[in-house]
Structure formats: C-alpha cells, structure tokens
Design a protein that fits this description.
Its EC number is 3.4.16.4. GO terms for molecular function: serine-type D-Ala-D-Ala carboxypeptidase activity. With about 300 residues, the protein is of the alpha+beta class. It is about 35% helix and about 25% strand. The structure holds zinc ion (ZN).
Length: about 300
C-alpha cells in the first residue's frame, strides 16, 4: 500500500514538472513584458488616431483584429501617432505591437457620441462639423468661453506671457454655429463672398465651434504682420506648444489650411501631442494627422 502510494505520488510529481517545463518559458515571457498605453482619439467621422506611449525610437505596428497589417510609426517624445481610416459610425478593434511590450488590443469608435467633444476633433474647409455640434462644460476666460481643458491651458499661457513681461488675453473663444453664421454673413456683406471665405469660416467649419480655439490679443496690433514681429506675437509663436496649443492657421500655409495667416489663432490639442508636434517640427494639423490639404470648400 505504502509502496503504491509512493509510486503514484512520484508519477504525479513528474507530470507536474513536465507541464511546468512546457508552459513555464512562454508564461514567464508574457508576464514580464511591460504593457503599453494605447489611447484612441476620434478625429473625423472616418478617421481615428491611436496615441501609443512607448520610449522614443520604438517602432509601433498596428493590425486589424483579423491580423492584416495597417501600418507602423516610430515613437518621438515618448509617443507614436497612428492615424487610421475607419468606417463612419463604426466600432473597430486594433491590435498594437511593439518590440519588448505585451500586445495590446484597443477598441476605437467613430460614432457621433465619440466625436462629440473629442479633444482632437478636426474641422477644416473639407470637414464640416454638424450644425448641432456644441461642446459641453464651457468655462469663462475673460469675457469668452472655452472647454475646461482649453480654458485652463490658456490661463496658464496668459500667466506664462505675463511672467515674460508680456500681455495677452482671449479676444475670441467658443462660437456657436449660429454666431459663426452671423459673423460670416456680416463679412460677406462687407467684402463679398470671395474675400470673406479667406477671412472667416462658414458656419460648421470653424475650430471656434469646437470650443478649443482662441484668438489671442496683442494690443495694439491686430494684423498678421505685426503679430509676427512684436514681442508678444513672437512669444506666442515660440511657446504656445508648451501649453498644448498649435497655431493651426499657420503663417504661409494657406494652401494647406485654407486660411489666411492668423498667428493669433491657437487651437488646443494637449501638451503631449504639441510636444510631439514641436519635436517633429510639424506646422499644420493636416500634416500632423496626414489629412489632405483643404485650400477650398
Ligand atoms: Zn480664430
């Protein structure tokens, strides 16, 4: 009896050791690989961005859940940006891999709900916002309104300028579809439609409707040429990225943005993305997200 028990115990022990020998290496490798943060951002009804946090120089690859390759991108300033086409109103799974990291699966949505209030929501002359688009949680800065994150950032920017001995403020912030419509109609009446279309966005095409864009003051200067030569204007151009802003109606980029040079117009994207923009010396949002130029409607 005792001998039979010893034999069966020994057999069980051998079986356990054999199982460990087979499963241990892969189990250990999987458990020790660090995970990476992958955040989906809705850009447009047919565009999603994945923002992957991995050390600079790491090549990040994204595939469809079925395994087919979509593309890859190299991390800069600790982040890789991947912009993906995705059917409007859909929910897709993506598989993200990078050497030395555990594989990550992320779900991204291009539903109207996901696009509403999305931090990186794009609009330009080729991409309209719905007339009903209105951000929630607006906060007041001076006499203007911005979304909470943009309001906090612009207050910090104003304080940063003040610390450098310069004065700026918010001349224009959130504009509803209706107020943009009134502004556009007024300019059409005053200058004619051709000129007005370079000066002010048609309703539904302004970043101001996102609640993420601000026109900064630079008294007494009110035009592009003095903005680019005054100390305040130069400070804004050099430092806006530190506060999470891009000068999206960039000087000399009308053929891409569709807008006249507006060095006072800043759009909030968050500091992690604008640090990436700054490091890569990207100027326009169209170039940043790989979107076609939008010179006309
Ligand atoms: Zn503006």
């Amino acid at each position: 009896m005792k001998r039979r028990l010893t034999t069966s115990l020994l057999a069980a022990l051998i079986a356990v050791l054999a199982t460990l020998a087979v499963s241990a290496p892969s189990a250990r490798a999987a458990s020790t690989l660090p995970s990476m943060s992958v955040a989906p951002y809705a850009l447009l009804p047919t565009k999603t961005a994945l923002w992957v946090s991995v050390p600079s120089g790491t090549v990040v690859t994204v595939r469809h859940a079925g395994g087919s390759l979509i593309g890859s991108s190299t991390s800069v300033t600790g982040h890789a940006l991947l912009v993906l086409w995705q059917p409007s109103g859909s929910r897709n799974s993506y598989v993200v891999t990078a050497p030395g990291y555990a594989t990550s699966t992320v779900e991204a949505s291009t539903s109207a709900t996901s696009l509403a209030g999305a931090l990186w929501r794009m609009t330009n002359k080729r991409n309209a916002l719905p007339s009903t688009y209105a951000p929630s949680g607006l906060q007041t800065v001076g006499s203007r309104q911005l979304t909470a994150s943009a309001a906090t950032a612009v207050r910090q920017l104003i304080a940063g300028a003040a610390a450098a001995g310069l004065t700026t403020g918010v001349n224009s912030g959130y504009r509803s579809y209706a107020s943009q419509s009134a502004l556009y109609d007024q300019d059409v009446k005053q200058y004619g439609q051709k000129v007005a279309d370079n000066l002010v966005a048609r309703p539904g095409f302004s970043e101001h409707q996102l609640g993420l864009a601000a026109d900064l003051t630079n008294a007494p200067c009110t035009n592009a040429s003095c903005t680019t030569t005054t100390a305040t204007g130069r400070w804004i151009a050099a430092n806006a990225w530190r506060y999470g802003f891009i000068l999206s109606n960039a000087v000399g980029k009308t053929a891409i943005t569709g807008w006249q040079s507006e060095p006072w117009h800043v759009r909030y994207l968050g500091t992690s993305l604008t640090a990436y923009v700054h490091a890569r010396q990207i100027v326009t949002e169209e170039d940043l997200f790989g979107l076609p130029a939008a010179p006309t409607y």
